[in-house]
From TrEMBL:
The keyword Metal-binding does not apply. One of its GO terms (biological process) is allantoin metabolic process. This is 2-oxo-4-hydroxy-4-carboxy-5-ureidoimidazoline decarboxylase. The keyword Cell membrane does not apply. It comes from Caryophanon tenue. One of its GO terms (molecular function) is 2-oxo-4-hydroxy-4-carboxy-5-ureidoimidazoline decarboxylase activity.
């Protein structure tokens, strides 16, 4: 049987999602549990979903973040940016946040810093509605990667 404590970090600084799912039921099947997490995110109000997005750190930023985010950004090379790359990331991050009202979110696993930067520039051209949906999809993908790491699924 799974416990809320096992999964409290799959959503960035938003353990309340996990807690709410476990308040409703006990889970022994991993896929059923993950789908319950997805359903919980989808049932949040738009304001709650925006808060979930805003709980994510800006990519490449030198700020305090969860151990999961540090490890994921490290793997993608975002902690070894040159000064020029760092400046470029900060410039595009700022433009993105000013445009959409939340930080750029992407599941960085398996992506390089250059790929992530190109995605940032490309997604800046999205409508807010399209980008909001994409950012939520990325939150779910990040949660999936973290969930699979916890339950021992190889990707």
């Amino acid at each position: 049987m799974y416990t809320a404590q096992q999964f409290e970090h799959i959503f960035e600084n938003s353990s309340y999602i996990v807690e709410q799912v476990f308040e409703r039921a006990q889970y022994t099947d991993a896929e059923t549990l993950f789908q319950a997490f997805v359903n919980e995110v989808q049932q949040l109000t738009e304001a709650q979903q925006v808060a979930l997005l805003q709980a994510h750190p800006s990519l490449g930023a030198n700020i305090q973040m969860t151990n999961h985010s540090v490890a994921e950004q490290q793997q993608a090379g975002l902690k070894q940016l040159t000064q020029e790359q760092y400046t470029n990331f900060q410039r595009v991050n700022k433009a993105y946040e000013e445009t959409f009202g939340f930080p750029f979110i992407v599941a960085v696993k398996g992506k390089s810093a250059d790929t992530i930067y190109a995605l940032m520039q490309q997604r800046l051209t999205n409508t807010r509605q399209a980008e909001f949906a994409e950012a939520l999809a990325q939150v779910i993908q990040i949660a999936r990667f973290r969930f699979d790491d916890i339950v021992g699924v190889s990707v």
